[in-house]
TrEMBL record:
This is Uncharacterized protein. Residues 180-255 form the AMP-binding enzyme C-terminal domain. Belongs to the ATP-dependent AMP-binding enzyme family. One of its GO terms (molecular function) is ligase activity.
Length: 272
């Protein structure tokens, strides 16, 4: 079956009395957004085997997939989930996927730390945007299609998205990946959904603002508890300074509408 991470999250957090044991292994292809490792580990515990694919409309579907290596089978569940959450290696049907400096088009070091943009080329990549020569020229500068996704490349060649270019939070000169913060939030036992955006801050420029939907029975969790949890699992500058509890707005395929959340965070005003 195929399912976006939002659906995986619904299955992973379904009530215990609604579950029935699987009689065989069920293969799932997921994509559309980055699945949190915590959700992937829960799905595996339930008997599902998830393969993560990364694609973009302009490249006609799946561009990379997280090809599983047999030697990873012996790793602990949480480590396997982290590996599965990576966007992986290029798919057979695309000529090339790489992580490069969008200005110089130089390769980033395969160190799992250096962040730059995912670029693609091949005959499944679009020829351009309809009646928009300016946007087409911008998208294909340097002879590659620029995805707008920021990623690192690991020593084994697998790529891992860190954020959308428009979503990255710059706080006191440090780049904060909203996906990394969200992954920690999803690992909290009381959180069922989470999304992080930038909020203006007078001192730091921007700081993380977390929007969270809690599981049933966890209504007593406070914003301070969530902030402390993040500070215990992340560098302190990456922890949200603002936490709001509400349902997350989504598209028809389950992607969180972060542009709405960015406007809400902006409307809160700057932190003094």
């Amino acid at each position: 079956m195929g399912a976006v991470p939002t659906v995986l999250n619904m299955i992973a957090n379904s009530p215990l009395n609604d579950r029935k044991p699987l009689t065989h292994k069920v293969e799932i292809l997921t994509g559309g957004s980055s699945p949190p490792p915590h959700v992937l580990s829960k799905m595996e515990e339930l008997g599902f085997r998830v393969t993560h694919g990364y694609g973009i409309t302009e490249a006609y579907g799946v561009a990379t997939y997280s090809l599983w290596k047999p030697e990873w089978d012996s790793l602990p569940l949480d480590e396997r989930a982290v590996l599965k959450s990576r966007q992986g290696v290029q798919h057979l049907c695309i000529e090339k996927v790489d992580v490069r400096d969008p200005e110089t088009m130089e390769n980033v070091p395969a160190d799992g730390k250096s962040i730059d943009e995912i670029v693609l080329r091949g005959n499944t990549v679009m020829s351009g945007y309809l009646k928009d020569a300016k946007a087409t020229e911008e998208a294909f500068r340097g002879g590659w299609f620029h995805s707008g996704d920021l990623a690192v490349k690991h020593p084994d060649g697998y790529i891992e998205i860190k954020d959308r270019l428009k979503d990255i939070i710059i706080s006191g000169g440090e780049n904060i990946s909203t996906l990394e913060v969200e992954r920690v939030l999803y690992s909290h036992p009381g959180v069922v959904e989470a999304a992080v955006v930038a909020r203006p801050d007078d001192e730091w420029g921007q700081t993380p603002c977390a929007f969270i939907k809690l599981k049933e029975g966890f209504d007593e969790i406070s914003a301070q508890e969530i902030i402390k949890f993040c500070r215990d699992h992340l560098p302190h500058y990456m922890a949200p300074k603002t936490v709001l509890f509400e349902d997350l707005p989504k598209t028809s395929i389950g992607k969180v509408k972060k542009f709405i959340l960015r406007e809400k965070a902006k409307a809160l005003g700057s932190i003094h």
